[in-house]
UniProtKB/TrEMBL annotation:
InterPro entries: Glycg_phsphrylas, Glyco_trans_35, Pyridoxal_P_attach_site. Transmembrane segments: none annotated. Phosphorylase is an important allosteric enzyme in carbohydrate metabolism. Enzymes from different sources differ in their regulatory mechanisms and in their natural substrates. However, all known phosphorylases share catalytic and structural properties. Allosteric enzyme that catalyzes the rate-limiting step in glycogen catabolism, the phosphorolytic cleavage of glycogen to produce glucose-1-phosphate, and plays a central role in maintaining cellular and organismal glucose homeostasis. This is Alpha-1,4 glucan phosphorylase. Gene3D superfamilies: Glycogen Phosphorylase B. One of its GO terms (molecular function) is glycogen phosphorylase activity. CDD domains: GT35_Glycogen_Phosphorylase. It holds the Pfam family Phosphorylase. It comes from Aliiruegeria lutimaris.
Length: 797
């Protein structure tokens, strides 16, 4: 597409789609016009890919997830369609700032963190690989809350991304599916009719997902909840104005808001309704498509693979069995077999507080037929395995992890260590009964968004050096290794990183009014706030360093900028205290004349996908410091490494694999192993002993306790200090000394700029394996048994 054609397309949409005159058009109008112009180019390819999937009778993958953390879409679309040049030229011609347009797009924050972002990376990789696939999610009106700070405390505000028109979706009112809840069951022999007492409509909204170079396109289908009967005119006419709108409001509540739960199960009824609504609509849609192509339901596992992202859609098993058995008349055991061979389940955490259970009373009320079927599934599983105590339904609850496991043919962990821990802990007994079921698929990230798009300087250097094949063959980044021995090339690498750091410094100055020195170590920890991720250990180390500088302000300290980002679950008081402490520390430290040359603390609010894209390319040091055994994988860790940051981290999640790939000598390892954590935790008084043995730690804790960062309220952080002193389940104190040691190793290493840059470049060269393309190929081979379509130029057809 030429620049002139692009310009004409933008102007056309500005006038005829957006309904605006160029003279009065605002940034928003130009963004919409550009989005429609780009979207037009995508749609033909998208249709062609869909037609081919049908014509070639291909097996499809269905990715069911309550979360898709997709972020902004415009730049991604432009890059994958290779339209940057024509867009940049056209905008220049029109006198419109590219940066301003890109920044105007709201983030689609339909997810909490890693789990939702993984689903988004998977959608992009599936399209890039030419794999016929469809993502199913919920079209939340309000995504993850927006975070503000008020006197350093987190305040949550609704995220109303749908307030503006959303250029990327197509509403599909013709795809409307009835979803029932409650009511009663009438059994007829083995089968039953279910008569729900409440019915809602699920309406589809489709977003095209275009792969690299536009060679394949898939669909992300998000469900909106709508009332069966809208506005009650009879009631209105009787003068009952509020009640007239009630059924509508009730139904819409279902897709109103994303639960901000991150590793906590709240057991809320509305959440269970969301899960069933999402799953039932998706299963109906999958079967409708299948039955339009084939007339034998026994073929389902050959033509469809349903992946359930964590247990949130685990009701898919019973729902599929219900349709096959009750509605289509297939024998119960055969129905279970078909469902199992179609479904597979990904586990994302072993934290006990995150494992979903639903009370049998609530489940029986809301989903009476499913409750019966779960008991029959349990019964069948007992007969199959000769066991008696491994039921999904026990102790008055339905355990969704067990249900997910027994209704799947494959169950996967998300990093090598995590998968091994699944086998030896949470799923130990089930694993022994089904030793072939658990497989590992180490997570990945899309290199299109997480290198090419977010880090243009480094990407250009890479492409200038080895060509652009790395973009969809990220293992090619290995070819950079010889360049890391070339001093001239390393200078260019350093220049790219430095320019990224200058950009970030300017942004920090403008938005937060904090001045930072781009020559400092940019040390970044961004992720949800959680005790197991140990942001407070990083804060303690920051305090200890600050105190050390104050003791001797004229020594040669290595300057650091400590950057934090992340949201705390609104009911998780401890995590909110960590946020508050970080902000209180920033206030004291950034204005300390003795230390501020050497140490700054920066906590930009509202960490999200777009902020990650800004921060990660500017990082020198990636903080991956979770208690060993607790972080299933991590994916931020991969993004940092790929962008040339060094990692300070524990042997946890995918850190283990990162360290193996980049080389142990290029990784700042510290802390106990998962096994050591388990034995050490059993030794009473571990925290007190660790504090007694490390005066730096004792002093840092004492500084918090005595109000060093909250003079107006010295006791403010007693929850944290008491917990760390007396309990410390996550081993902050016991790992602190080694963490401090590793941080000082970082200082020493940073002094040799060229060597640091060489190792940083090696990180980029050696972490191409973490492309989500590799992950998706793994699922295709080990879990889905599916092949991709050949990649051709769809536009030429
Ligand atoms: C989540 O983001 C994850 C797990 C979970 O149970 C719930 C949520 Cl919202 C994360 C894991 O914590 C992380 O280690 C992993 O990399 C990510 O899921 C994707 O697998």
């Amino acid at each position: 597409m030429t620049s002139a054609e692009m310009k004409a397309a933008i102007l056309h949409h500005l006038v005829y789609t957006q309904g605006k005159d160029a003279v009065t058009a605002k940034t928003y109008d130009w963004r919409m016009a550009l989005s429609y112009a780009v979207r037009d180019k995508i749609v033909d390819r998208w249709f062609e890919a869909t037609r081919r999937a049908y014509a070639e009778k291909r097996k499809r993958v269905y990715y069911l997830s309550l979360e898709f953390l997709i972020g902004r879409l415009l730049k991604d679309a432009i890059i994958n369609m290779r339209l940057e040049e024509s867009v940049l030229d056209a905008l220049k011609d029109l006198g419109i700032e590219w940066e301003e347009i890109i920044e105007d797009e709201p983030d689609a924050a339909l997810g909490n963190g890693g789990l939702g972002r993984l689903a988004a990376c998977f959608m992009e990789s599936q399209a890039t690989l030419g794999l016929p696939a469809m993502g199913y999610g919920i079209r939340y009106e309000n995504g993850l809350f927006r975070q503000r700070f008020e006197d350093g405390r987190q305040v949550e505000e609704p995220e109303d991304w749908l307030n503006q028109a959303h250029a990327w979706e197509f509403a599909r009112p013709e795809v409307s599916i009835d979803i029932g809840f409650g009511g009663h069951v009438q059994e007829i022999g083995s089968r039953a009719n279910w008569y729900p007492s409440e019915v809602l409509i699920a309406r589809a909204h489709d977003t095209p997902v275009i792969g690299w170079k536009g060679r394949w396109g898939n669909t992300l289908r998000l469900w909106e909840a709508r009332p069966m009967h809208g506005f009650d005119l009879a009631r209105f006419n009787r003068g009952d104005h509020t009640a007239a709108a009630e059924p509508e409001a009730m139904a819409r509540t279902l897709s109103r808001v994303l639960y901000p739960d991150d590793h906590t199960e709240q057991g809320k009824e509305l959440r269970l309704k969301q899960e069933f609504f999402h799953t039932a609509a998706s299963i109906r849609d999958i079967l409708r498509r299948f039955e339009s192509e084939y007339d034998d339901l026994r073929l389902l596992p050959k033509k469809a693979a349903i992946q359930i992202n964590d247990t949130h859609p685990a009701i898919a098993g019973p729902e599929l069995v219900r349709i096959l058995h009750d509605e289509r008349g297939i024998d119960f055991e055969e129905a279970v077999g078909i469902a199992r061979n179609t479904i597979s389940y990904t586990n994302h955490t072993l934290l006990p507080e995150a494992l979903e259970t639903w009370g049998e009373a609530r489940m029986g009320r809301l989903l009476p037929r499913h409750m019966q079927l779960i008991d029959r599934i349990d019964d069948l599983h007992r007969r199959e395995t000769g066991t008696h105590d491994l039921n999904a339904h026990h102790d008055g609850k339905v355990h969704m992890g067990t249900l997910g496991f027994i209704m799947a043919h494959k169950v996967n962990g998300v990093a090598a260590l995590h998968t091994e821990l699944m086998k030896s802990t949470v799923f130990k007994d089930l694993h022994e009964l089904h030793p072939e079921k658990i497989v590992n698929e180490t997570n990945g990230v899309t290199p299109r968004r997480w290198l090419l798009s977010c880090n243009p300087r480094l990407s250009s250097l890479i492409t200038d050096s080895i060509g652009d094949n790395w973009v969809d063959h990220a293992e090619d980044l290995k070819k950079l290794e010889p360049f890391t021995e070339d001093a001239g090339w390393i200078e260019k690498f350093t220049a790219a990183k430095h320019a990224n750091k200058v950009d970030l410094s300017n942004w920090i100055a403008e938005t937060l009014e904090i001045s930072v020195d781009p020559d400092s170590i940019f040390d970044i920890q961004v992720k949800r706030i959680h005790e197991y991720k140990r942001q407070h250990m990083n804060l303690l180390e920051t305090i200890a360093y600050w105190l050390e500088i104050r003791d001797n302000p004229n020594a040669g300290w290595t300057p650091r900028v400590k950057i934090f980002g992340g949201k705390a679950f609104p009911n998780y008081i401890y995590a909110k205290e960590m946020v508050h402490l970080a902000n209180d520390m920033a206030k004291v430290m950034n204005s300390d004349p003795l230390t501020s040359r050497f140490l700054k603390v920066v906590f930009p609010p509202n960490y999200n996908v777009s902020l990650a894209e800004r921060l990660i390319p500017a990082a020198d040091l990636s903080e991956q410091i979770s208690t060993a055994g607790k972080e299933a994988s991590g994916t931020g860790n991969m993004k940092f490494s790929l962008n040339g940051a060094l990692t300070i981290g524990t042997l946890d999640g995918a850190n283990v694999e990162i360290r193996e790939l980049v080389g142990a000598e290029n990784f700042f390892l510290f802390g106990m192993t998962a096994e050591e954590v388990m034995t050490h935790r059993a030794e009473a008084g571990h925290a007190a002993r660790a504090i007694a043995a490390d005066p730096r730690l004792a002093r840092a804790l004492e500084t918090i306790r005595s109000g060093g960062f909250s003079p107006e309220e010295p006791g403010r952080y007693h929850m944290i200090t008491d917990n760390l002193t007396h309990h410390d389940y996550f081993m902050v104190c016991s790992d602190f000394t080694d963490y401090w040691r590793a941080q000082r190793d970082v200082d020493a290493a940073f002094a040799d700029k060229a060597e640091w840059a060489r190792v940083a470049a090696l990180n980029t060269a050696r972490t191409g394996w973490f492309s989500s393309d590799r992950t998706i190929r793994g699922y295709m081979r080990d879990v889905w048994d599916v092949e991709a379509a050949p990649l051709v130029d769809l536009a030429a057809e």
